[in-house]
């Protein structure tokens, strides 16, 4: 479940092989949010009546009981008992989790972090998502809310984040962050090509204006990407200092913004991380799953839940 669409899939809960899938736009009315999920599940169950359990990923703070407490991209959902509603309606075991947790589960079990007991998974889209693998498990925390690296504070004088705070890592390392950095350049009197691509209005600058300027050989486009990759590297360095992983996985549309973006980030991390020259370099790998990672992880989690509770 995302801010713009709901994707439902049926799998065996072990692999990423999709037996059937269904997608629909996320209802605009927050009161219809649960109805959207129920409708997708109902359609899938009609096609595959042998389904044994249901998993849902939601962009927000989801507790151990599957209740959503906060979701800036899915407003109006406070206290929504997603797992309980599904379980009652379809008489099947159901579980709801944060989508970053599920993406990390997918990359850990089936993707780029396979075989790593300590890993950081970061997805760069409109915002930043992700999860932290510690001791072979995706970290959940005391309430189920662990793994929100996008809201680490990196600059108290920074840009306002989607969460309302100023200076979160997300505000300089996501799609919104890329646009913020481009606006900084425009305020310095540069970036005219980027500004023109946005119709001359700095508030309309988006990530794609930067990437198209860069693709066209615009030096200011490259400058924005250089500053962007620097910020991404600083955040990753902080996470490495905190968790000592053996791999970092970068996913989401932004991680593929330019040829060599991931290697540009990787080359700056050793300098930024404490004791960089005294520790093994941590490989930074591209995620193996895209937008479907959360749905695949929801099915993995549903199978675990059916078997182990
Ligand atoms: Zn934030």
Q: What average pLDDT do the residues reach?
A: 94
CATH topology of the largest domain: Nucleotidyltransferase, domain 5
CATH architecture of the largest domain: 2-Layer Sandwich
Name the helicity range.
Answer: 25-40%
N-to-C series of helices and strands: EEHEEEEHEHEEEHHHHHEHEH
Integer tally of domains: 2
Q: Which structural class matches the secondary elements?
A: alpha/beta
The count of strands amounts to 12
Radius of gyration over alpha carbons? Answer: 20 Å
Distance between the termini: 22 Å
Order of strands across the main sheet? 10-9-8-11-12
CATH class term of the largest domain: Alpha Beta
* Biggest beta-sheet profile: 5 strands, mixed
**CATH homologous superfamily assignment of the largest domain:** ATPase, nucleotide binding domain
**Shape field:** globular
Poorly predicted regions: none
Q: Ions, cofactors, ligands: which are bound?
A: zinc ion
Count of individual helical segments = 10
Bin the strand percentage. 15-25%
């Amino acid at each position: 479940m995302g801010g713009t669409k709901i994707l439902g899939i049926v799998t065996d809960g072990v692999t990423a092989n999709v037996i059937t899938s269904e997608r629909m736009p996320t209802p605009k009315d927050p009161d219809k949010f649960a109805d959207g999920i129920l409708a997708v599940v109902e359609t899938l169950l009609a096609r595959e009546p042998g389904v044994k359990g249901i998993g849902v990923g939601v962009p927000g703070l989801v507790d151990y009981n599957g209740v959503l407490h906060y979701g800036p991209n899915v407003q109006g959902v406070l206290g929504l008992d997603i797992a309980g509603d599904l379980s009652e309606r379809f008489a099947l075991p159901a579980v709801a989790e944060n989508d970053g947790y599920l993406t990390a589960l997918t990359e850990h079990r089936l993707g780029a972090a396979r075989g790593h007991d300590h890993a950081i998974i970061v997805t760069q889209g409109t915002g930043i998502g992700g999860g932290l693998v510690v001791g072979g498990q995706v970290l959940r925390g005391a309430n189920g809310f662990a793994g929100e690296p996008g809201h680490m504070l990196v600059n108290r004088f920074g840009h306002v984040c989607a969460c309302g705070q100023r200076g979160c890592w997300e505000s300089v390392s996501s799609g919104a962050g890329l646009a913020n950095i481009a606006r900084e350049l425009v305020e310095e009197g540069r970036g005219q090509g980027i500004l023109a691509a946005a119709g001359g209005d700095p508030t309309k600058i988006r990530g794609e204006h930067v990437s198209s300027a860069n693709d066209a050989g615009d030096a200011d486009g490259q400058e924005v990407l250089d500053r962007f990759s620097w910020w991404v590297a600083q955040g990753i360095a902080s996470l490495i200092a905190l968790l000592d992983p053996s791999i970092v996985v970068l996913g989401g549309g932004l991680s593929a913004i330019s040829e060599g973006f991931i290697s540009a980030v990787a080359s700056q991390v050793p300098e930024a991380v404490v004791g960089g020259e005294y520790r093994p370099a941590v490989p930074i790998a591209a995620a193996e799953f895209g937008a479907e990672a959360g749905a695949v992880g929801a099915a993995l989690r549903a199978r675990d839940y059916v078997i182990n509770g």
